[in-house]
Specification:
Radius of gyration: 15 Å
Strand content: over 45%
Number of domains: 1
Length: 150
């Protein structure tokens, strides 16, 4: 079973990024994902979360943000584990993104955690490397997080 949620990373002053609503399942004990703020101005709305990273100003930047991910069951139970992957779905190409130190290439799923415990928050670091040659203005990227049970 797979459940998708989106973490939209927007380097915008205002949140004007949209994402498709993920597929949901009504099976008892179905898994989902919730995001937890790691002190970063994370805004969670339904199945989406936004990180406000400010704007690119023509200087090189290395930004780090901590994001908590909790796997939850729709019936409230907290048992078992599942794999957690992330995929870069959209980017304007002006920065490189890493999760927990590993590059996140566009369109290729990255196994973030092979056995994430259901009900427990796991903390992940998302890094953004912006080169000095990046054009000034708002940057944006969309990452899809997926949870899957064996």
């Amino acid at each position: 079973m797979t459940r998708n949620l989106f973490l939209v990373l927007a380097l915008l002053a205002a949140f004007e990024v949209t994402a498709a609503t993920p597929h949901t399942t009504a099976a008892a004990g179905a898994l989902g994902i919730t995001f937890v703020d790691g002190g970063n101005s994370l805004t969670v709305t339904g199945n989406e979360a936004w990180l406000d990273l400010d704007r690119v100003n023509g200087h090189a930047a290395h930004l780090k943000r901590r994001v908590g991910v909790r796997l939850v069951r729709d019936d409230g139970s907290a048992w078992g584990s599942a794999s957690l992957t992330a995929r870069l779905d959209a980017t304007d190409g002006r920065c490189n993104i890493r999760i927990d130190g590993r590059p996140l290439p566009a369109g290729v799923p990255l196994l973030v955690e092979a056995h994430a415990a259901v009900g427990r928050i796991t903390w992940h670091t998302i890094e953004f490397d912006v080169p000095p040659s990046a054009a000034e203005g708002a940057l944006s990227a969309a990452i899809t997080w997926e949870v899957e049970t064996p």
